[in-house]
Amino acid sequence: MSTTSRPPAAVAGTTTRGRIFAATRTTLRAGIRQVSPVLGWVSVAAWVTLGVAVASLVAAHRLGWVELAGLGWGLVAVLLVSAAFTIGRHPYEVRLRLREHRVTVGDRAVGGITVRNVGDRRVLPARIELPVGAGRAGFGLPSLAAGEEHEDLFAVPTSRRAVITVGPVSSVRGDPLGLLRRTVTWTRPQDLYVHPRTVRLTSSHSGLVHDLEGKESQDLTASDLTFHALREYSPGDDRRSIHWRSSARTGKLMVRQFVETRRSQLVVGLSCRPEDFGKDPEEFELAISALGSYALQAVREQRDIAAVTTGETLRSATPDALLDALTAVEIAPGHHTLTETCRAIARDYPRAAIIVLGVGSLPGPRDVRAMASVLPLGAEVICVRAEPGTDTKVRRLPGLTSITLGALADLPRAQHRSES
After folding, report:
1. Which domain holds residue 222?
2. Residue 201 lies in a domain
3. What percent helix, strand, coil does the chain show, rounded to 5?
4. Residue 339 domain-assigned?
5. pLDDT at residue 133, rounded to an integer
6. What pLDDT does 227 receive?
7. What are the boundaries of the signal sequence (predicted)?
8. Residues 277, 395: one domain?
9. How does DSSP assign 95-135, residue by residue?
10. Across the 420 residues of the chain, what is the mean pLDDT of every consecutive 10-residue run?
11. CA 413 to chain centre
12. pLDDT for res 74
């Protein structure tokens, strides 16, 4: 049996063609990468203009029509003039700043853009564009001499709770017809948190304080009731904790150290299911504002806080972190029911003293009692049913207090009535 092998010359030719093909493909890819940013400057209208110009010149050449030739060359001249508007450097230094990154619904949110010409020549006028959420703001940038600055102020709408992305700032050069457009991005986007409205509550419920049951914390702190030991002073320690007698005896600054006392815990639970809210979107906003008010009051009273929704556990280490998390919460289908979330609360926070639930107008008394029945025994349960426009009512049910809230301003009075 004989085998057929390719001649060495054929193998060498195939290898050479493969190398040429690979090199050509690499060159084309590099060329496309270099040209693609420039192609991004060209609008659809410019491509249409170029097509009409080429077609007119070809037709004029074949048919001998002088009018078509004039039209074609006129359109070519328009494209060349448009290209002249986009050519040139952008010697800018651009700064984007927001006066505050956290505001409340209805507050004024102001920012500014500062553009400085860092080149050594005067630059032509340009346009500055700033995306703000789903919209886009535009500012005219005048001609700037070398070293000259220009500043524009802008206001961000804060009529709704939202996380608004501001930026990045881009400088735009283009022709008046909008055929060619060259954009350079200068800054990074920044987030503006429009927090929900809250009201100040006079006090919150005490609930069942598990600290009195004798279970001690293992955490150490610089100020509390239970003395633990003395230790050497470290930079940053509170000077009020210095034990002067021991410091005089040892020759070193000594500070008191205490065992941290457990504080009563407040847990807020929010439903994000469409099935728990009516058609009015203000129901969800009112429920968020009510739970945020309870949480901030707990911060003022130095309680531990945990916040959960039917879809996730929210960050609650600081008041700003909690309000940021509430700002980003949205209604979404497919979440667990609030009763299932209450079971998770009972599992994860068995020592909770107060549990505040937020729902819309659709869950009835039977649904509310079902939620409360799976929560830890001894915890004080408050269910806030958001129903904008109705009269605020406080109703006591077995194992919980139900507040039908018609307006956020009514919450302090309703909370006071629920305590009495």
Report:
1. 216-259
2. no
3. 35, 30, 35
4. yes
5. 87
6. 45
7. none
8. yes
9. EEEES-SEEETTS-EEEEEEEEE-SSS-B--EEEEEEETTE
10. 51 59 61 50 77 86 83 86 73 92 92 92 86 87 90 91 93 76 86 94 56 42 51 77 84 74 77 91 94 89 87 88 93 86 90 90 86 85 92 86 92 82
11. 33
12. 87
> DSSP secondary-structure letter at 240?
G
Question: What pLDDT is attached to residue 404?
Answer: 92
pLDDT at position 356: 93
Q: Name the domain boundary from 259, 277, 310.
A: 259
**Alpha-carbon distance 341 to 269, whole Å?**
8
With respect to residue 210, please indicate whether it lies within any of the assigned structural domains: no
**Tokens 């590099």 sit at which residue?**
30
Q: How far, in Å, CA of 41 to CA of 362, rounded?
A: 53
- Report the alpha-carbon distance of residue 114 to residue 93 in Å, rounded: 8
Please state whether the peptide bond connecting residue 168 to the residue before it is cis, i.e. omega within 30 degrees of 0: yes
Q: Which of 406, 121, 16, 215 is nearest to 414 (CA)?
A: 406
**Omega before residue 376 within 30° of 0, cis:** no
- Which residues contact residue 165 at a Cβ distance below 8 angstroms, ignoring those fewer than 6 apart? 131, 132, 133, 189, 190, 191, 192
For residues 302 and 377, membership in a common domain is answered with: yes
- Residue 123 DSSP class: B
96 phi and psi angles, rounded to 5 deg: -115, 130
Partnered with residue 126 across adjacent β-strands are 141
Domain count, the chain: 4
CA 380 – CA 418 distance, rounded (Å) = 11
Q: Token digits for 123?
A: 């630059």
Give 360-384 as a DSSP string: -SS--HHHHHHHHHTSPTT-EEEEE
The backbone region for 191, taken as left when phi is positive above 0, alpha when psi lies in -120 to 50, beta otherwise, is beta
In the block, tokens 């009075």 appear at 413
The sign of the dihedral angle between the CA atoms of 169, 175, 177, 179 is negative
The separation between CA 18 and the C-alpha centre of its own chain, rounded to angstroms, equals: 51
Distance CA 46, CA 378 (A): 73
pTM for the complete prediction?
A: 0.69
Cα(241)–Cα(255) distance, rounded to whole angstroms? 5
> Strands 170-174 and 126-132, how do they pair?
antiparallel
